[in-house]
Amino acid sequence: MQQIVIVGGGAGGLELVSQLSRALGKKGLAKIILVDRQPTHVWKPLLHEVAAGVIDKNSDGVDYRIHAARHNYQFQLGNMSNIDPLNKQITLDPLLDEQGEPLLPSRVIDYDYLVLAIGSVSNDFGTPGVAEHAYFLDSLAQAERFHKALLNQLLRINQQSDSDSTLQVAIVGAGATGTELAAQLHHVANLARSYGMPAMSSERLEISIIEAGKRILPALPERIAVSAKKALTKLGIKVLEGTRIVKAEKAGFVTNNDQLIAADLLVWAAGIKAPDFIQRLNLFETNKAQQVLVNTHLQSTISEQIFVIGDCCGFKQEDGTWVPPRAQSAHQMASLVATNLININKDKPLADYHYTDYGSLVHLSKYSTVGSLMGSLSNSSMFIEGRIARLVYISLYNMHQFAVHGWRKGLLVLLTRKLSNIVGPKLKLH
Ligand SMILES: Cc1cc2nc3c(=O)[nH]c(=O)nc-3n(C[C@H](O)[C@H](O)[C@H](O)COP(=O)(O)OP(=O)(O)OC[C@H]3O[C@@H](n4cnc5c(N)ncnc54)[C@H](O)[C@@H]3O)c2cc1C
């Protein structure tokens, strides 16, 4: 029986493993193994909400072990540290407990087909001081670390009788992550007042969002950027465009004009790259963002047995641009690789990957949602905002839940989430 190993149970990997286990695992046609270094999956586009404390990972996360038991695949907790394409094996680091004591030795897993779905990390472009002083939102652990620091700072400001004292937050990178986080933080500062911090409000929060490019949301159509900037400015959020950061210090970010943008909390959300681990392996052909180069079937250029999906995949389109690192790309790549692995199992020819841009949405907390939808027949985009945009934004997460759980369970999960939103606190306080 074929052994298919998927490393990374994120936006792409978990959808893929769900499809393969239904089509092959359940029928005994292949053994499916998922490897992830985390025990729980949280959809990455929700991480800024975890960071702000408006959602709870316990109600929004998927426990891989439980998911595996219900979906006919095996889950292995561990960090992949090596790939051996000649012997078709991967190695996982020894597993340590919370005290750093060894729990499991290093493990080797054989594969007939391997799928790399290990996502991406923030790219600080080597900017001095960023790794030491700034928060990143690459993983659940990092989002939770920021959340704890935010709560501490809110408590500190709340205790200060001088009403002029403010909490300063500086976010570098005005893509969707940076802009959405800024709006969520503004909302949270007001929420804090109802949760034991009566002196806190958005008036005591100063947020700066810093973008090196000419405008915020550089990857999205200009109309979305204009509308989002208007909404952010109305909230009193400082939007600094065309401002390049050359250094981070404990006291804030320093610009190329040697200006200090003072901050108590520094966040870096400017650009991504595939994990450094890929470079260290020195196995794959990669692009500037360290993404693994693939052919039209999404097989790595060095081995047809290794497929690559999601943020770590470097797929060059006919017009010379790279497929953007987005949840919709990971979703489409997962579907294509599921089709191809099923085709291989049935001795059918492989399908080609074509990225379809269905549009983009930016959700600025409760204040505004703006975006564009791409027409299916033409390449023209339709601008949407307000309630419709919000509904489409929410439906993206819902579609992910359906892909991962199936329709019936997916609906129950969404219903549970809705109920817990109604009865639970609006702000997570630990
Ligand atoms: C805050 C934030 C907001 C975003 N908002 C949006 C949005 O609104 N719309 C949108 O389209 N996109 C958004 N994105 C981008 C989107 O989240 C990613 O494009 C998408 O998650 C990529 O999916 P993936 O499967 O490639 O990787 P991920 O979802 O990141 O999953 C990677 C998985 O691999 C595991 N892993 C990594 N390395 C190893 C290893 N060595 N061994 C074992 N396991 C490993 C990780 O634990 C993780 O579970 C956002 C991203 C962030 C950070």
Would you kindly provide a written description of the structure presented here, covering whatever features stand out?
By secondary structure, this protein is an alpha/beta fold. The chain is built from 12 helices and 27 strands. A 6-stranded mixed beta sheet has the order 5-2-1-11-23-22. 42% of the residues are buried. The chain binds flavin-adenine dinucleotide. Flavin-adenine dinucleotide (FAD) binds next to strand 2, helix 2, helix 7 and helix 10.
Describe the structure using short key phrases:
alpha/beta, FAD/NAD(P)-binding domain, six-stranded mixed β-sheet, four-stranded parallel β-sheet, 12 helices, binds flavin-adenine dinucleotide
What order do the helices and strands come in, and which of them pair?
Blueprint: E1 2-7, H1 13-25, E2 30-36, E3 40-41, H2 47-52, H3 57-60, E4 62-63, H4 64-70, E5 74-77, E6 80-84, E7 89-92, E8 95-96, E9 102-104, E10 107-110, E11 113-116, E12 121-122, H5 130-133, H6 140-159, E13 167-172, H7 176-191, E14 205-210, H8 222-234, E15 238-240, E16 245-249, E17 252-255, E18 260-262, E19 265-268, E20 272-273, H9 276-281, E21 292-293, E22 299-300, E23 303-308, E24 313-314, H10 327-345, E25 359-364, E26 368-374, E27 381-385, H11 386-405, H12 407-423
Parallel strand pairs: 1-2, 1-11, 2-5, 11-23, 13-14, 13-19, 14-15, 21-24
Antiparallel strand pairs: 3-4, 6-7, 7-10, 8-9, 12-20, 16-17, 17-18, 22-23, 25-26, 26-27
Helix pairs in contact: 1-10, 1-11, 11-12
The structure holds flavin-adenine dinucleotide.
